[in-house]
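> tool_call: predict_assembly(chains=three)
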Amino acid sequence: MIRRMHRNIPSFASVAVGLITLALPLFLSSSNIEIYVNIGLYTIVVAGLSLLMGFAGQVSLGQAAFYGIGAYTAAILAVHGWSPLVALIAAPIATAILAFLIGIPLLRLKGHALAFGTLAIQLIFLAVIPETGALTGGSIGLSGIPPLRIGSLEISSGRDYAYLVWIVVVISLIIAGNITRSRPGRGLRAMAASVSGASATGVEVERYKLKDFTLSGAYAGIAGGIYVFFIGYLSPDAFPVILSIEFVIMVVVGGIGTVSGAFVGAALITVISQVLSTLGTGPSLPPQLPTVLSLGVYALILIVILRLVPSGIIGALSKLFNKVQSASPVAPPVIGNSVETVSTTDNNDKKEFTLADEI
Amino acid sequence: MTAFVEYLLTGVSRGLVFALLAMGFVFIYRVTRVVNFAQGAFAVFGGFITYSLLRAGMPQGISELLAVIAVALIGLVFGIITIVGEIPLLASLVITIGLSILSEAIGMLIWGTTPITYSGLAGHDFVIFGAFIQRQYLIIGIASLAVFVGLVYVFGRTYFGKAMSACASNPYAATLSGINVKRMGFIAFMLGGALGGLAGVLITPLSPITYNADVSLAITGFAAAIVGGLASPGLAVVGGLVFGIVEQFVAGYWSPSNETAVALALLVVLLLWQSRWVRLGGLE
Amino acid sequence: MKLSESAGSETTGSSQNGVVASDTVLATFDLDVRYGAVVALEGVSVHVGKGEMVALIGPNGAGKSTLLNTLSGIKRPAGGRIVLNGKLAHVPEGRQVFPELTVEDNLRLGAYRGGSRDPGPMYELFPQLQRLRYRPAGGLSGGEQQMVAICRALMANPDVLTVDELSQGLAPLVVSDIARHLVELNRQNGTAVLLVEQNAQLALNITSRAYVLENGRIGMEGRSSDLISDPAVRAAYLGGVR
């Protein structure tokens, strides 16, 4: 009964969040619409990465490269006369295929080695783009990307993009949620509880890993595709290493392996970075202050969360929710049954013994 | 011939610096099973602190020594943040990523965004086979050789060194013998800090550093360490030399812009090759 | 009841507890150990006298290794008390040598907590190890590794040695050789031994007293010679293949 309620309340909350976010673009200024779109795009990328980190227990530091590959796929096709819609659909497909092909050998690596391996992919991406100027525009970038058209409907205003992103976010989260539910009990375990637990089920995990890696590529690809039509031009500067790290931070902040955490993490970090850049920019302030602030705050968030609340914000909230539940009078009385039931966790050991002492 | 010698010697001296970084990875990994992403940041701090001490009027040698000591202490602090208490390995890795960007923020705040450098050993460049060789190469050679010999002595001969190797070899049995494995982990981080700091002190006169140089330094050091499966300090030196030389030859005979991509591709190949033999990443 | 904070370290038994006899080197009182919610040991009281050889037998998963790990301080007890009069050294299950280090370095590290680091006496005890002293321990046979593990523990100069699964994975001849050495050591140096053993026959043959651990509790205890002829013990632990 507790479990069922526990599952229903977040889903009620997500419906509420869904409705609020659906209404929001009607009231936002154009610069805030941009933030809104970015949060949506990052939510998509982070949802994919969160699956990889939560269920396969692996960190990818190359997610910004996949985001970039999606963007370049869509941009190059659209610039070369393909229908923008086809170009957009091709973005996740091409990125997923690439992730799958890279994943087959690369996922033999684990943990730290995989993190560095994917970081290498990211750095190779950044090193290769400037060398392929004819196709990608090199370090100057690509411009003249045609507007996105779906049938006769032209998607041009910020609000149009906001709704496009909203739809894609919802679809992505529903897919990710279904995957999460199809693997009961495995969320959070890989990271928050036992690391060795992640590799315990062998073959199954190997399959999940490649599937999640491919899917995380597709997610980053579609987000990158939308991004490029939204922005209208493209340069490799848009996909720095720090963006990959930001994605990891968003996952950690929201809660590894939780679907709603993807949105919470993406929203929180995007808003924080926006606030910091506003705070740090001023005529008398040093020009590097916004970067210093955001790097410093990211680092502190990452370290503090992993040291203090490794389950992330969503995990901490549901833990809190559990506590409230068991403390309520409806909950079955835990204390007073017998000495054995009092001391089911290690933390209670000492307490149990003072109790036993009295007896 | 002239160009060849120049590329080779440049490659060797840069390779020795990579080797120092790589050994930092290895010592930390062996004892704690953590691959320290912030290893590159140690080098950046080493260069930055030396630069500041020199500007404050300290003599060269003293500045460099103090910088290495300071970075060793930074290493200790990073170690404590990363491994104290019960923490899953993956969380440790992500924490070191956090420490790496924290270092970037601190570096940018104190030393700004323009590349900094200082001159190395005073005196004229010397000529071998018609190639101009900087004196700093000599210092790099001597300093890293001294460090290698020192480490071989400590780990090969001293009781403390054996105890540290024991933690790497079998942490459970080490604990049973009364060795405090966590404390050894902190010491390993200190050693990693000192090695990374020295790498930075030595390389800054050759190539100016910026606050965000840590990622490329870390990945090159990691690549070198991977040659020995992260476990062998000796092979890490070999790896450092290989990467240093390959980098210079690619830059010299092909194109400097391919240098990074080739080194990274080599890293990926090495990683995959290694994963056939050892279970990398510490997630057994 | 109080929780002994210093399980496995050098502690002297509290004199206020009259239960601890003066010739007891190691004793537990109502020891409880849990893994999360799973009870591994419950109300376990054992004692080992000075220079005594005691066996701990029982089926797989009864909690034998858990008891030794708790005694050596690896696992914290949830309740009860451990009294240790002197030094304890543990020979873990599966030998757990330092494979990359030489035999001699393995032995020397046994003295990490203090005392002489000279492995000479160990080579007198197990002369075979003398010629292997500069070989990495990982390359040794199972029996040789077991010798290294025992000697490494002995380097701590313990008053009581706890041995977990002496015979595991070893050929019978090798086992009896090592067991003979263990008895000899016990007679000569007076080192007490608490031996956990799957092979009950062997354990009861070389010890004077024994405990039978079943489902985390002490099921039976007594003189080894009595237990060896006890019908229940014979049926459960001596009748089968083992």
